[in-house]
Amino acid sequence: MSVVELLSDYTIQNVVAGAALLGLVSGVLGSFAVLRQQSLLGDTMSHAALPGVCLGFIIAGTRDIGSILLGALATGALAALVMLLLTRMSRLKTDAGLGITLSVFFAMGVVLLTHIQGMNNASQGGLDAFLFGQAAATLRSDLWIMGGITAVALLLVAALWKEFKLVSFDPEFATSLGMPVAWLEVLLTVMVALAVVVGLQMVGVVLMAAMIIAPAVAARQWSRRLEDMVLLAALIGVAGGIFGALLSALSRGLATGPLIILSVSSVVLVSMTVAPERGFLWEALRRVRARRRLRYQQVLTTLYRLAVHHDDPVYPSEQGMLDTYHGLRTRAVLSQLERRGLAEWQASPHGEPGPARRWVLTPAGIAEAERVLDALGREDA
User: Fold this and answer.
1) Handedness of CA 61, 198, 12, 251 (dihedral sign)
2) What whole-number distance in Å separates Cα of residue 223 and Cα of residue 233?
3) How many CB atoms lie within 10 A of CB 29?
4) Contact 217, 34 (CB under 8 A)
5) Which of 199, 200, 232, 237 could be joined to 219 by an S-S link, Cβ 3.0–4.6 Å?
6) pLDDT band for position 139 (50/70/90)?
7) CB 83 within 8 A of CB 69
8) Among candidates 78, 211, 194, 206, which has minimal Cα distance to 145?
9) What is the rounded distance in angstroms from the CA atom of residue 294 to the CA atom of residue 314?
10) From the centroid of its chain, how far is CA 190?
11) What angle do CA 30, 34, 39 make, to 5 degrees?
12) Which segments cross the bilayer (predicted)?
């Protein structure tokens, strides 16, 4: 099936559009959650949405998406407020408050779901799909609801950009300026609940936490400014959502929600590996360079200290002795010093090869050693 034929399918159009909306709102709002060190917030509210899904079904008496999403928003926001109260009015840490809230609300959701399954209501079929999502069931009317929620969330972010930015980075300073920090934090938390509501149909309660966190984490690896991070997180979320949806359509049998999460998570893995200055490869390269620089400085200063100790600026030090002193082969470092004109070797007076070579610092080497020791002394001070 060609791409044109694929995208002309009504169901696939709905799934792709829904995945794009989910990625957009998750990337934007997840950035603030990650920066506020509340990565588990999405997990808590996604699990807390389950009782809202059940209550929405019970009240409406049918599987009406509007009622279900409204119920999910209500219980998700309630869970967020409970978490804030627990952490502000007790000695509980944020992670403990999140864990308690998640467990209690999810347990309530499972109880309500079990109760609904015991009801004689033919509309209950497929309600448990909200646990893992059922993207193929997305209708055009569902997209309008998801799009409206996304638009509200993005408009709030745009209107309160400066306030959200300050609260995320320096809430104490925001308080000193007279900003209603508590209300802004509540609003941010409720907005994350909006993102969770958008994703329930696509990826479900269980996987929604990853959708909130993953795009923001990947974007954080590549950006230094909040503006860049939010924009990049939105792009990663949209791209990952669309790619996962199309991959599911091509595979014919693989669930859409998990493929969306895997697509976004693969971007996180790549970002954490190769992102400039923050990726694992860059960190490994920095460590290798640091070890080489340290070994270089150690050998250089050892030659200098031996010369000072013997009161002889051209005191020859045997390579074998240097190997023994440092517990490693110093030939590569000595060759580097030689290439830089900081040291030169002299043959053994007995003409012995290899380790019997003796090394002498040049005037430039003495000056470099003094500079290194002076810099190390300032660091220790």
Assistant:
1) negative
2) 10
3) 34
4) yes
5) 232
6) confident
7) no
8) 194
9) 23
10) 21
11) 90
12) 12-35, 40-59, 65-86, 98-116, 143-161, 173-194, 200-218, 230-247, 259-285
- The pTM of this model reads 0.76
Dist CA 354 CA 347 (whole Å) = 9
Q: Which long-range contacts (CB under 8 A, 24 or more apart) does 309-312 make?
A: none
DSSP strand E in 142-241: where?
none
CATH topology of domain 282-380: Arc Repressor Mutant, subunit A (1.10.10)
Mean pLDDT rounded to a whole number for the chain: 82
In the chain, where the domains are located: 3-254, 282-380
Main-chain phi, psi angles of 317, to 5 degrees: -110, 130
Please provide the DSSP assignment of 333-351 as one string. HHHHHHHTTSEEEE--TT-
53: its two tokens: 């899904």
For residue range 281-305, what is the model confidence (pLDDT) as tens digits?
Answer: 888 888 888 888 888 888 888 888 8
Q: Are 53 and 33 in contact (CB under 8 A)?
A: no
Determine the angle formed by the axes of helices 65-88 and 140-159, rounding to 10 degrees: 30
What is the CATH number that goes with domain 3-254?
A: 1.10.3470.10
